[in-house]
Design a protein that fits this description.
- The protein has 2 domains: 64 residues; 177 residues, Glutaredoxin.
- The protein has 10 helices and 5 strands.
- Strand 2, helix 4 and strand 3 form a beta-alpha-beta unit.
- It is elongated.
- The mean pLDDT is 86.
């Protein structure tokens, strides 16, 4: 701001007194003197106009017409979203099978329409979107949800994510059933969280109880949770999250468009169209 004011003052001085800087031996100004004088005036006018615009623009944006800032931000966000969707669209089209990896699938595994869901079992917003997706799956058999279990909350997330991935080794339908139980029921309490040192073991035990309820062989499940398949799938989840700049859950890719955050049933239906 200070430099702009200084340039404005200098430009005015240059415009007013610029002609005096041109010295000529003749009493009558030569053609060259006139051209130089006009040139100085043009430069001065350009500097004055630029400085006034620079000084006036913040005032205009913040006081006279602040709504334009919202329009600019909205336009920028829309452009960024479209660029991000293009990245998603291009990658999904070429790497669908790689993206699915060893992930469990809810719904019709052979469905033509695919929803990728990054979620965390300890995330309340993920539970909300899970119920919306369950409604979609109950009404339609042309949709499948690929469960990319994003383990981001430490002990609260690790065992559930590992268990659901490992469950698919036994049976995909049972993995989907365990996913539903983990989302519909509370698998830890506030009392469980009092002793952080014991929390991983408590969460693991609680997850195993739900796994048994889902009809899984819990002994085999515990072994598979430590295996290569689970490690590879969790790596796949993290790498895709980095590629698509996923920083939180839930995050959905429906068809070829990204939806960060929890979305409603109607929004899911619209996206599937």
């Amino acid at each position: 701001m200070i430099w702009t004011l200084l340039i404005l003052v200098l430009a005015i001085v240059l415009y007013v007194f610029g002609g005096k800087f041109i010295k000529s031996g003749n009493k009558k100004a030569s053609a060259l003197d006139i051209v130089m004088h006009k040139g100085i005036n043009v430069i001065a006018i350009m500097l004055i106009a630029g400085s006034v615009c620079r000084l006036w623009t913040p005032v205009y944006l913040t006081h006279t017409n602040p709504a334009i800032l919202q329009e600019m931000v909205s336009a920028m966000q829309a452009q960024q979203e479209e660029e991000k969707n293009k990245v998603v669209r291009d990658y999904v089209a070429k790497h669908m099978d790689d993206m699915i990896g060893d992930a469990p699938i809810a719904g019709n595994v052979d469905a033509k329409k695919t929803i990728f869901l990054w979620s965390d079992y300890s995330c309340p917003y993920c539970r909300r979107v899970h119920s919306e997706l369950a409604r979609v799956l109950s009404e339609r058999d042309d949709v499948r949800v690929v469960l990319k279990n994003f383990s981001i909350h430490g002990a609260l997330s690790d065992a559930p994510a590992q268990a659901v991935i490992a469950a698919k080794i036994q049976d995909n339908a049972k993995a989907a059933a365990l996913d539903k139980l983990l989302m519909d029921k509370e698998y830890f309490t506030r009392d469980d969280m009092k002793d952080q040192a014991k929390l991983p073991d408590i969460i693991h035990a609680n997850v195993m109880k739900l796994a048994k309820e889902a009809g899984l062989d819990t002994k085999k499940l515990a072994e598979d949770m430590k295996g290569e398949v689970v490690r590879n799938e969790l790596r796949n989840v993290r790498e895709l999250a980095q590629r698509f700049e996923i920083s939180g859950t839930p995050y959905l890719i429906i068809g070829n468009k990204a939806f960060p955050g929890a979305i409603s049933y109607s929004a899911i239906i619209d996206a599937l169209k």
